[in-house]
Each structure stands twice: as C-alpha cells, then as structure tokens.
Amino acid sequence: MKTYGSGDAAVRALDGASVTIPAGQFTAVMGPSGSGKSTLVHALAGLDTIDSGRVFVGDADLTALSERDRTLLRRERLGFVFQAFNLIPSLTAAENIALPLTLAGRRPDPAWLAELVDMLGLQNRLGHRPSELSGGQQQRVAVGRALIARPDLVFADEPTGNLDSRHGAALLSFLRDATRTLGQTIVMVTHDPVAASYADRVVFLADGRIVDELPAPTPEAVLTRMARLDVPAQMVGA
Ligand SMILES: Nc1ncnc2c1ncn2[C@@H]1O[C@H](COP(=O)(O)OP(=O)(O)OP(=O)(O)O)[C@@H](O)[C@H]1O
Fold first, then answer.
1. In 7, 144, 148, 183, which residue has its Cα 20 to 30 A from 95's Cα atom?
2. What is the pLDDT at residue 125?
3. Are 151 and 77 in contact (CB under 8 A)?
4. Number of structural domains found in the chain
C-alpha cells in the first residue's frame, strides 16, 4: 500500500498490489495513466518506500533495510533505464557506461564492455559527451550503463519514449535478447502495446492493483486487455 498526501487530498497509488517478477524473464507493466505503474516500479526498485507491505529482491527484504543498505543493494544488484537518462554531461559515453562500477571502485570487464558497446552500436561514439549524442544514442548509453555491472534486475520506465520506431525496435530487441542470452531479468513500464509485445509477460495495473496478466503477449491481445480496463485504449498514453 502506498498513499500520497493525507485527508481529502489522499491518493492511494498502490492498493494491495501483489506481483512476482520471475528471474530471467522480461515483464512489462501496463495500465491507464495514474494507475500506479511508476509508483510500483519505484517501490520494487527500492527508490521509494511503501506504507505497508513488503518488497523482496531474491531473499533480501527491501522494506526492512536501512536507507544505506538499500542504496548498496541498488548499486550492486539493480540497473535502471528511466526516461530522463540522467547521464553526466561532463563524462564521455564510455565513462557514463562505466559509472556504476566506477562508483563502486571497480573497472568494467573489457570483454563485456566491448560486447555491450557492439550490441548497442556505440563503437564510434564512446569519446563523445551526452550533448554531442542524439537522443537515441543517449538512450543506448543509458542502457549500457544499466547493464554494465550485470545486475540481477533491470528496471526500465518507458525506455523507448524518446526513440523513433526503428531505434525503439532495436532497443526492445536488445532487451529481449538480454533475457534470452544472458538470463537478464527486466521490468519495463510502457504505454505501447507493441513495446509490451517484446516482453514474456504483461501485468496490468488499474487503481493501484494488479488486475490482469497476459503471457506471450501480442500487440492485439494487449490492446484487447487494455480496452477491458476502465479507460478506453486510445486514451492510454495521453
Ligand atoms: N509525489 C506524488 N504526490 C502525490 N501524488 C502522487 C505522487 N506521485 C504519484 N501520485 C499519484 O499517485 C497515482 C499513481 O501515480 P503513478 O505515477 O504511479 O501512475 P502511472 O501509472 O505511472 O501514471 P502515468 O502512466 O501517467 O505515468 C496518481 O493518481 C498520481 O497522481
């Protein structure tokens, strides 16, 4: 449970939401605007606290950890691709990708760095700063940064929001391949039925609860399920 505000202004953003994210799977989270998707993902990632309930990453109970231990767990086991990529302007693409490891006093494994850079098509951009990169390239740097430490779990909030359809499709294929070939666990919030169709499973939120789920989603099946929720599908994403 998560409530914002109090009294008449209180908003119950999560209301008995219960979800399991299987390891090695790509899970998409969908639902009408305001249904609690970002709140859920922030809670799962330990970026935000909840009022009641628990969040486990493997055996670790995030809700029982101190702020400091949560931060350490995030740094060591989780990766993030959010819409504001939060790249550091003064660092090159290569330095931004390596940042989670640099912060932990470690260096990237050269073979893994080379493989990531190759998969992301950033070979010729590693010395560039974010201001010298296109939106799509910045997004790919953010994906590299999320994966460089080989986190147990990657969270992506509308990762294709700023990309044209070609780069969006490439990024989604990359994420899907990461689950297939590396066993990467991914949770992605999206409004886009086509983006959701790259996932192994879609969970649907409405009014702060998980109301439905769909394995092996196709864009058509996702649209049909969305239409069953309160808000008409064509309004979702507004
Ligand atoms: N910091 C906050 N203070 C007050 N209310 C908030 C805050 N953050 C979110 N809310 C409210 O909580 C509810 C859930 O918000 P949340 O951002 O999780 O929804 P969402 O499904 O991610 O929406 P969208 O698709 O529009 O991004 C909404 O009613 C929202 O107005």
1. 183
2. 95
3. yes
4. 1
107 assigned to some structural domain: yes
Which residue CA neighbors atom 6 of ligand 1 most closely? Answer: 4
Mutation probe of ligand 1 site: the residue of 39, 47, 155 with most atoms within 8 A of C-beta: 39
CA distance 196 to 164: 16
> What CATH number does residue 199 fall under?
3.40.50.300
Strands 60-61, 78-81: pairing is unpaired
pLDDT of residue 25: 95
Residue with the nearest Cα to atom 23 of ligand 1?
Answer: 34
Tell me how far the alpha carbon of residue 17 lies from the centroid of ligand 1, in angstroms.
14
Q: Report the distance separating Cα 174 and Cα 16, nearest Å.
A: 33
For residue 104 the two structure tokens come to 């932990």
**Series of mean pLDDT values for 10-residue runs along the chain (238 residues):** 84 86 94 92 88 88 91 88 83 95 91 88 94 89 91 90 80 89 91 95 94 95 87 49
Q: Which domain holds residue 168?
A: 26-233
Q: How close is the Cα of 33 to the center of ligand 1, in Å? A: 8
Q: How many whole angstroms from 104 Cα to the centroid of ligand 1? A: 32
**Ligand 1 atom nearest to 237, measured from its CA:** 25
pLDDT given at position 195: 95
Q: How far is the CA of 49 from the centre of ligand 1 (A)?
A: 14
Q: Long-range contact list for 50-57, CB < 8 A, 24+ apart?
A: 50/1, 50/2, 50/14, 51/1, 51/2, 51/3, 52/1, 53/1, 53/14, 57/152, 57/153
Taking CA atoms, 22 is separated from 80, 120, 161, 199, in Å, by 18, 25, 25, 12
Q: What confidence score (pLDDT) does residue 235 get?
A: 53
